[in-house]
Amino acid sequence: MENYVYPFETILEVNKAKYIDGYKLLISFNTGEKKIVDLEGKLEGPVFKPLQNIEEFKKFKIDYTIEWASGADIAPEYLYEIGEPI
């Protein structure tokens, strides 16, 4: 990754997130953009296992990105990349 160019002028952060349904969230980024992010099928590994319970998935909080009590979090860059602009 020697030649990797970070595509943002500032460090990307999640400002707000709202649960929509299923594993979909409406996410607002510090760039001013909003995207719908569908995490269904993308929460793999032991740290994400508790989130298979949708009620646990809904209990996220924001600390520059989305995180859960289980210790799981997802990089804001990944959320931005997979999100659908609205």
Number of helices: 2
CATH topology: NE0471 N-terminal domain-like
The figure for the number of domains is 1
Q: Percentage of helical residues?
A: 10-25%
Radius of gyration: 13 Å
**Coarse shape:** globular
Biggest beta sheet attributes: 4 strands, antiparallel
Strand order of the largest sheet: 1-2-3-7
* CATH architect. name: 2-Layer Sandwich
Find the count of extended strands (DSSP E, 2+ residues): 7
What does this structure look like?
- The protein has 86 residues and is α+β, with helices and mostly antiparallel strands.
- It has a single domain, classed as NE0471 N-terminal domain-like.
- The chain has 2 helices and 7 strands, in the order E-E-E-H-E-E-E-H-E.
- It has helices spanning 54-57, 76-82; strands spanning 14-21, 24-29, 34-38, 61-62, 66-67, 73-74, 84-85.
- The strands form 2 sheets. Strands 1-2-3-7 form a 4-stranded antiparallel sheet, with helices on one face. Strands 4-5-6 form a 3-stranded antiparallel sheet.
- The N and C termini lie far apart (31 Å).
- The mean pLDDT is 92.
Task: Draw up the topology in text.
Elements: E1 14-21, E2 24-29, E3 34-38, H1 54-57, E4 61-62, E5 66-67, E6 73-74, H2 76-82, E7 84-85
Antiparallel strand pairs: 1-2, 2-3, 3-7, 4-5, 5-6
List keywords for this structure.
NE0471 N-terminal domain-like; 2 helices; 86 residues; 4-stranded antiparallel sheet; 3-stranded antiparallel sheet; 13% helix; alpha+beta
